[in-house]
């Protein structure tokens, strides 16, 4: 460390110099907002990259049924063990099986995206851009099939909004 | 006369009438195969077991070529690998490659050998032949003809082992397929084995289909408790839940088979369990601590030692349990009424299934429990309760209503000072109990069974007992301690150590000595 000069040792001039920097930034923010980097979240939506890994969703076939064949490769690759699938016999013998229930525990999920990579049918994606998951109860973080397919809205959830709004 | 030959540079001696694949497997050399099965006749149709023989121009199939002196066999030469690759390519031509939705994935011969010998890019340009999917063969078996490689193991099983002849190959060429004969269902008592012998995903079990992917399952070696045969099994389980039982090879007991009744016997481990000790209070059973439940039982036993105590036990317990129970009866309770309830004899055949549906009737008697009770003995016990001679009854794993009749058992709630029911699953009549003690099932504990032939076989704990259940030997130990004995068994193996010292046919035995395939105590008793 360099030894302090005489003027630095006096201390007061250095405080004034520091306050000048603070005051300059304060004035810039008060009289013109062009240079501010603060995002007005949650009032204004924030920018989310297309490749951002947000909350999962399940894709559908052309006939509207879930694309998932319940092969369980996502559940196998999941390092957090948060995907729970119950497979059932499909009425069409060429389809073999389908997910009776498909639940993701979003509290356990580490948002690594391995399930999306593992899926051979592109049935699960993480492209919703939803990152602010909130709920008043833990069980509301268990996202069942209908939520992931977008049939229903999550219960008790205020996504991107302050609780009082 | 044994034959001397060389396989992959290793000098081996083979049985005179052995084929190359048998000789190789017996000396630990693996040869890939689909249609060959050690317990079925030789078909030689899959062509996967090709090997190179010195001095012969073409590759030969190892499963149907007898060994000869001075034979030199190569199982992994470049020519062999190329040949197998070609065979595999043909087998996979019409295969749907639907591994992600196929139940066999993870234990499939096609997948395994493709990774070993295949790894080619498909050259097949034409339309694949489509077959029948999800064909219902019988109560437990579903067939998918697209996945079938026509190895005929299942056909040979029904012809040679179950001798019921339900299956055959129909049509020819690329429309050839396995089917049941008209009007027949694959419903013989051993039908589930066809799923086990199927090397691909063509035959799947309805009971197991889609329940779980096989790579999640763990295997624990155990013994089926379904009848006196004691077939060797592997328990396939995940997170304390049993998903299926698979037979395990033991040529002295069950070869490689198991009956369907035994195969589906695992459901009792998952369902209808007694999970906590309970005490009768205010007219119903209420959950209690082990301490409270044992104290209640001990108090009742203390008040009526000797002849006023009755024990009725089903030979479902292990040798360790039976030994401690016999000691509890003679040393601690001093000559109570002890009855071994054999249950209702069931169906029997000349292959595996025995009429005695208990796994350890012979072992229980070896350990000092009485011979299976006759109807008269059971009636005598019920009468003794009616007359008030027996005031405390300790029922262990017994279906009370089946043994004594619903009306009799309904009276016991008031007639007996204390009815202690110890069971892993709720039994009819159990609701009359004053004290209900939860015991562990065979999948949750170590121990040994002695089958009807005198084969001593080991159970291994697959996972910790559900709820608060304890293995029976532990309950007996705690009861004896509560009654003033200094028993200090910490494990089932500790009990076996004492059995080995006390009972001559079992002398010197340990779990290590019994091993995975059992130990015969018959010749010494």
Write a concise synopsis of the structure shown.
The complex is a heterodimer of chains A (165) and B (525). Chain A is α+β, with helices and mostly antiparallel strands.
Distance between the termini of chain A: 52 Å
Strand segment count of chain A = 5
Shape of chain B: elongated
CATH topology of the domain at 278-520 in chain B: Rossmann fold
Query: What's the CATH C level of the domain at 278-520 in chain B?
Result: Alpha Beta
User: From the helix content, strand content and strand pairing of chain A, which structural class follows?
Assistant: alpha+beta
Largest sheet of chain B: 7 strands, mixed
List keywords for this structure.
heterodimer; A: 165 residues; alpha+beta; Alpha-Beta Plaits; three-stranded antiparallel β-sheet; two-stranded antiparallel ribbon; 5 helices; elongated; disordered C terminus; B: 525 residues; Ubiquitin-like (UB roll); Rossmann fold; seven-stranded mixed β-sheet; five-stranded mixed β-sheet; 16 helices; 23 strands; 27% helix
Describe the structure.
The complex is a heterodimer of chains A (165) and B (525). Chain A is α+β, with helices and mostly antiparallel strands and 165 residues long. Chain A has 5 helices and 5 strands; from the N terminus they run ααβαββαββα. Chain A has 2 domains: 8-38; 57-148, Alpha-Beta Plaits, CATH 3.30.70. Chain A is elongated. Residues 157-165 of chain A have low confidence and may be disordered. Chain B is an alpha+beta fold. Chain B is 27% helix and 19% strand. Chain B is elongated and about 85 Å long. The longest helix of chain B has 14 residues, at 78-91. In chain B, the strands form 6 sheets. Chain B has a 7-stranded mixed sheet with strand order 15-14-20-19-18-16-17, with helices on both faces. Chain B has a 5-stranded mixed sheet with strand order 2-1-5-3-4, with helices on both faces. Chain B has helices at residues 20-26, 78-91, 109-117, 153-161, 192-197, 260-263, 267-270, 290-303, 319-332, 361-366, 375-387, 400-404, 406-415, 472-482, 492-502, 511-514, and strands at residues 3-7, 10-14, 50-53, 60-61, 71-74, 135-136, 141-143, 167-170, 177-180, 203-205, 218-223, 232-238, 241-247, 278-281, 284-287, 309-313, 337-340, 392-396, 418-423, 435-438, 447-450, 455-459, 519-520. In chain B, strand 21 and strand 22 (455-459) form a beta hairpin. Among the domains of chain B are: 3-91, Ubiquitin-like (UB roll); 278-520, 3-Layer(aba) Sandwich (Rossmann fold), CATH 3.40.50.740. The A-B interface holds A 69-73, 76, 87-89, 93-94, 96-97, 120 and B 98, 100-102, 133-134, 209-211, 213, 215-216.
